[in-house]
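*** Backbone structure tokens ***
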Amino acid sequence: MAFPYSPKARPAPGRRQNHRQTRRRRLLLWLELILKTGLLAACIGAGAATIGMGARLSAQELSGLSKRKPFTIGGEVNAEFSSFLSQPKNFNRPFSYLLNVSLNPAIYGISLPLQLSFGQDGFNFKHPFNLLQLTPSYKWVKAYIGRTGMSMSPYGLAGIGFDGAGMELTPDFLPVSLSAMFGRLQKEDVGDSLRPPTYRRLAYGFKVGWTHEKQQLDVHFFHAWENGGKTADAPTGVLPQRNLVLSWQGRFTIADIVTLGSEGGVSWLQRKTAGGTEGTTLPVSDKASPGLSFKLRAAAFGAELAYERQGAQFYSMGRYYSGGDLESVSLGYNGDFKQRWRFSGRLGYQRDNLRRDRQSRMNRLAADLQLQYASDGPWEASVSYSNFMTHTRLLPMQVEPGAYAPIPHPDSLRNTQLSQQAQARFSYRFGHRDSRGHRPSDGQPQDGTTRPASGSPAHTLSFDFSFQESKLVGEQAMNDYFSARLSHQTGLGKDCRLNTALHAQAAYQPASKTAEIYTGPSVGFSKSFLEDKSLNLNIRLQYDLGFSPRALQSGLANLGTGLGYRFAKRHQIDLSLNLRFKHTLGNGRSADASNTTATTATTATTATAFRTDFTGTLRYAYRF
């Protein structure tokens, strides 16, 4: 299907008919030029009108511009000095430093952030003037100016950045909204041997929306095209193209129980021919491809049914990633029971190669489940499971009789890959009792006295477990990962905490029947000093032991401490020290009980290598 304003591929035989087509084409081109000029003028006019009333730069909302100070400045200055020492030495730069200054001057509330840094790698300066973005707004009028981005529809303009202008009108006294944009999506580049050339890409679009109570309907129009220029003669075969998308979004609620939602679009894509002379536009492909999404949700029961289909040729220049040729359907549910149990789950199926014109086809099946338990009591629990199954098949090749077939049995080239993951968490709180055996929630005595807080401190005991597997169905798993952690938290007094944990991680490869296990304890301590809690101390100690079922491989110990002090409200000094000690066993030490009868001469020797690393960082920050 050709665009109504594009030239015909076949000229009319009669001179009169050709003259009529030329006049019609000129008229449509003039209408398109007037529309583009009007959109650009409206966008720039809305931006210029709202800058004097209320402005936003880099996503900063401002109001009451006349009451603000003409000039303000804030920021932060920080200096950092760090040292890294190792034995044996393998690092060429044991000391490093960095001075960073961040300034945020504001002129009538419009911020212009600046940042400069100086260190051993040299001087660096960042400013916003090479990528200026203005988003002024006033009441229900909002404008986009500069290098910005807008989202109007998932099937049309969906957040891609552009250089130009746009506006949004969302009046609160009318159920109608309007959005429009015009700008450049892509610069022209001649390319080189490593990257193909790109054309200058321009676009404009607008959206009209209607909202009334729980009903909503939006219609979006998007048009983008590329200019040939010097890249048209490039030998890479990259051709300029033109794209038009018409999309919609709607949501309707029936009797406050069932919600119907639909979104989709139709895309037209047109490319120029490689043999056309300069100034001609001969369409080589011009196809309409639909995309559709449909959702049915029962709000009273928490169930949702969603369906989406994008044609094989669906493409939109207004998206960063635009891939069609897919169809998916999913069923989801979420709800709670007695305000303690909450369940949610979703099951989805997706497939591609809808027209069956490619050699490969892929089907995907995904599911996830979550179960949570929470109450006013001490117990909390959550369990989740998700999987992702992909089935890939190469379709039979068309081979002439008697010809050599490179693949004797193409139907056998199929596989099903399964990836699944499970997680579980359980926690239990106890303690919080005073010397009389009462909980703090039991209330204070009737005589108005205060109970002493000398009872047992609060404790939290938690257990986390996760499992992840990836394999080909019918074969052994590629990798299995296990992780478990048992932790305990308690308070040792005012502003003092103690955390202890025991963790274990394992990676198992069924093909080689090998496993690697890392496990060890960890202890953490934190304490705040002074009345304003301006002095903070934390200490952590962790030891990890790595081994296989038959050999001890390595051990790693970490001892770290940190001290932070805040003074004069705006000054902060932080000191952190970390010492790491690692020992590696070269030949390994046998842990198999059957080796106990072996002689000393045949026992594997243990060659141990030691490594020590020290890291220290001193940081000062001043905020103004």
